[in-house]
Amino acid sequence: MDNHAYHIFSIPVPVSEEHVDKYRELRLLALTTNPEAFGSKYEDNVDKTRAQWRAMIDTPERFTAVARVLSTGEWAGMASILTPEMAGQHTGDTGPNPHLLVGMWVRPAHRRKGLGKRLIGAGIEWVRTRTEGMPDKKRQVTLEVHRHNESAKALYDGLGFVVTDGECEDSNRIPMFVVAK
Ligand SMILES: CC(C)(COP(=O)(O)OP(=O)(O)OC[C@H]1O[C@@H](n2cnc3c(N)ncnc32)[C@H](O)[C@@H]1OP(=O)(O)O)[C@@H](O)C(=O)NCCC(=O)NCCS
């Protein structure tokens, strides 16, 4: 499949019932397929109600980019960026927060086709637009990656993310950031 086989879009708010279902399905698949890659666990998510799933994505404080397979409508991958306000709720950190990239996942059959790059690119463009004219600190996008996740680290590195001095709560993870401009 080439680049034209996929459509990259962001989940519109208010979120449709179909999008809640597809988001839930892909997120649970991501957590079962690559549990090592995420801070969140399948067991903590599988029993969430539809309203809880909806609440996660039905907000303008979150940008969720999705790669849709044009021929089938299947969602091949997704990644979200949380605003600084939402990122604070996510991490429990009350201090000033940068934007936070979370939930980066591509179905195994669709990997190495540039989708990770395109999904993050869409997220960075969203941050770039909403922070136009602001100081660099407000334009930062951070993420946490497992220190042995070579494919994800290579992806982020290729997009200009650099490792920061900071530490993550989980010592197996390292923080990276980029300025969206
Ligand atoms: C990491 C992940 C999102 C990459 O998605 P992807 O769509 O395959 O990535 P892309 O095709 O856009 O790759 C872009 C670049 O990233 C790097 N990269 C991606 N996968 C790689 C791999 N397995 N090995 C080495 N480099 C890799 C390459 O530099 C690649 O460019 P290239 O194909 O021109 O060499 C995907 O492997 C995945 O979902 N992994 C499991 C979940 C995960 O680790 N999420 C990250 C949590 S922090």
From TrEMBL:
Keywords from UniProt, A to Z, are: Acyltransferase, Transferase
Query: For the N-acetyltransferase domain, which residue ranges apply?
Result: 24-181
UniProt GO MF annotations: acyltransferase activity, transferring groups other than amino-acyl groups
A single Pfam family, by name?
Answer: Acetyltransf_1
Q: Does the keyword Transferase feature in the UniProt annotation?
A: yes
> What is the protein name stated in its UniProt record?
Acyl-CoA N-acyltransferase
Organism for this UniProt entry: Mycena rosella
